[in-house]
Structure formats: C-alpha cells, structure tokens
Amino acid sequence: MTTAPTTTTAPLLSATDLHVTFPGRRGGAPARAVDGVDLDIAPGEIVALVGESGCGKTTLARTLLGLVTPTSGHVTFAGETLTHTSRALKAYRKRVQLVLQDPSGSLNPRHTVYDAVAEGLRIHGYAGDEREAVASALSRAGLRPPERFFLRYPHELSGGQRQRVVIAGALVLEPELLVADEPVASLDASVRGEILALLLSLRDELGLSALVVTHDLGLAWNIADRVAVMYLGRIVETGPVEAVLTAPRHPYTRALLSVLPESPGDPVILAGEPPDPARIPGGCRFHARCQVLASGEADAVADACRTRTLPILSGATDAQVACHWTQ
C-alpha cells in the first residue's frame, strides 16, 4: 500500500457521466460497455481500476485516452473538455500516455530500442536533442547506462527490460498521466515488484499520475492510493485503497478479495458469469450473482436489490459504495 501524496483540489483528469455503447450483434440490443461512470484522478495520484474480465475497465481506459469516443458524457483534462478532433487528440496524447500489458506486442521487432523510444518524439515533431531525450527516458525507466541499449532489439531483452522500454517510450514525451493496462500481467513474479517500484518512483520523482487497470487487488494494494471497483460497466465501490481493501463493503469487492492467498476464510465462488452488457439486469446489476442476497442475509432489502437502480457514484476521493445492503 502506498501513501497518498498531497494533491491539489482540482483533479487532473475527470470523467463525468461517461457512457460507451457498441452496436448489438445481428441487430440486437446495444452493449453498454461503460454505463455511467464518474472518475477523478488528482495530480500525483495513482488510481487502480479493478474488476473481472469483461467488466468494462479496458473500454473505460481507452475512452479516457481518447481512443474511444463516448456515447455520452465527457472527459476533462487539466480543466479542458477533451474533443475528438485530430489536433486536440494529438496534443492530448502527448500529455497522457498508454502502457500496455504485453511489451512484446507493443514493440516492433524490427526496431531498435532507440527507435522504439524515439518514435513518439518524431510523431510530435520534437525540436530538441533527440538522443539526449531518449537516453534520459531510458535512464528514468531503469535501463542504465542507456547507450548500452540503443542498438538492441526487443528479442535481445528480458521481459522486464522490454516493459521498461515501453515505459521509456511513454516517458520520453514527459506526460502528466500514464494509463497502464495490466502493466505486469505478462511478467514473472520476480520482475513484477521491480516494475511496480519503478511506477511508484516515477510518481514520487516526476509527479506523474497514473490509472492502473488490473484484475489483481493485490497489485492495487501495493501501488495505488485509491481503488475503483468496476462491475458490468459501472463503478460499484471506490475510495482510499486501505479503506476499500481492509474493510470492503460491496459483496463483489468482498468476493474479489476472498480469492487472494492471504485472505482469511474460504474464497467466495460467484454464481455464473457476468451478465451480457446488452442485457444489464434491473435493480442492482450484481444481484443475480450476489452471495449476500443468495444466503438470505439481505432479505430485508431483497426487493430493492432486484428492482431499484442505484445512483452513479461520484468521482470524488472519499469511500463510496453502490449497494442497497450497505446503505
């Protein structure tokens, strides 16, 4: 668990009532991949976005990056609403950079490390000393001395070194926010800690903000200041990482935590698969799989769970939960 930095009141990035729908299959109902999300990220803050595969977290991250245009709602960065013109997106992507989970897929095998890191500079017409900028980025990413890596190719590097090259390619543009999608999922356990420590040091040294997308609550504990738990297109619990992960209130968060090796008690096995985002159930969207409702513990609010829709959680930093049982 990290200690949250002192941040300014105004968020660096804000999503407000964000919705993203995709056309249904064969003319069916549209899929509501992101179905009402408010999320703030403060300067110098690391937020972990967690949830099962298919919950919408990657679509939300791509929307925050400007790679997907929201159906409704908007994204604000540094006080300005993101527009999806080519010029606006090019300027935005210099300030907000993506780090993908698979460094092998992110790097062109025919490009040297130098060219991989310099690519962003060339796209954005960098007018300074390119060699110095590349060397500085590699050094910040932990590849020292940087010149030793200039002429190497991805296949000559370890998995951890390739991920550091990807991070250097993001850092070379001196962004204010990194969006890291499962940044250590493809790495050996021995290397994961090094990459997480690197991301934390970048926050401390450069004041970088980060959104870390992951299914791993253990990773969230180790790196995040704040966590947002997503289920079926909506954030269902959010707050400071210590508050959420030591005293989870939403049954879904409890189930995710129960499968961690260090978790006391038996793991909670959720019934079935997450519902189709084209057929989101009424009431609480988790009610069909909720272990608390199934056990009878939530009988007093069972009707509300099945019929009454919960409000969208705000993007603020305080602990919040969307659950009738915990109200």
From TrEMBL:
SUPFAM superfamilies named in the record: P-loop containing nucleoside triphosphate hydrolases
InterPro entries tied to this protein: AAA+_ATPase, ABC_transp_ATP-bind, ABC_transporter-like_ATP-bd, ABC_transporter-like_CS, Oligopep_ABC_C, P-loop_NTPase
One annotated GO biological process: transmembrane transport
A GO molecular-function descriptor: ATP binding
Any matching Pfam family: oligo_HPY
Domain ABC transporter: 13-257
Recorded family membership: Belongs to the ABC transporter superfamily.
Protein name listed in UniProt: ABC transporter ATP-binding protein
Species assigned in the record: Streptomyces liangshanensis
